């Protein structure tokens, strides 16, 4: 009954507040079918560790020189064009309606590219930023993906204990790693022995996902993969 009520609620909202495509302006969806077909997908060959495009599918130079905590990172799209705008609107413009269609894109990716996961965990915001924004876009994506995939969501175990400046304002990968070092912790050991899939909107260097992984593994997580809508490449 609850899923039916959710669908009815979405239908009512769409009637009252119709959506327009962020790419072409066509009414109906955040990203229309025509613009969706043109989205900049990341396709093989890719680095087997961080998922960026890489000739011959061999580990990239960054992964060879940096000892990751995270097992693997995957992203469906390049952080460009309509995808970039959709993430920006979700993250900064309160367009929470974008969470569902973006999560559907992640769901499609997981069906075609299964990863070892039994629980979904969103990258958390610091309480200060949560108060400023009013919501965590990664948690919105995570919960929608949980509804689509049937995987449970644990959103109150991994927390951000240290407020940091936005990663986008840091210039280099090493600065990003320093910025988020020891910024996360786990409240308890609920994720001990679990195969965790970390969900975020966009990855740049992977530093945030890796810092989250360090906290999760120190609390007993068996494995941690990262999955994002987009990746800067």
Task: List key phrases describing it.
single chain; alpha/beta; Rossmann fold; 2 domains; about 15% strand
Explain how this protein is built.
With 233 residues, the protein is an alpha/beta fold. The chain has two domains: 1-37, no CATH class; 39-231, Rossmann fold, CATH 3.40.50.2020. It has helices at residues 2-16, 33-36, 61-65, 81-92, 99-112, 127-133, 137-149, 173-180, 207-218; strands at residues 72-78, 119-122, 158-160, 184-186, 195-203, 223-231. It has a four-stranded parallel sheet, sandwiched between helices. Strands 3-4 form a two-stranded antiparallel sheet. The longest helix is centred in the first third of the chain and has 15 residues, at 2-16. The protein is globular, with a radius of gyration of 17 Å. Mean pLDDT is 90; it is low at 5-17.
Structure in a nutshell:
With 233 residues, this protein is an alpha/beta fold. Helix content is 39%, strand content 15%. The longest helix has 15 residues, at 2-16.
Write the layout of secondary structure elements.
Elements: H1 2-16, H2 33-36, H3 61-65, E1 72-78, H4 81-92, H5 99-112, E2 119-122, H6 127-133, H7 137-149, E3 158-160, H8 173-180, E4 184-186, E5 195-203, H9 207-218, E6 223-231
Helix pairs in contact: 5-7, 8-9
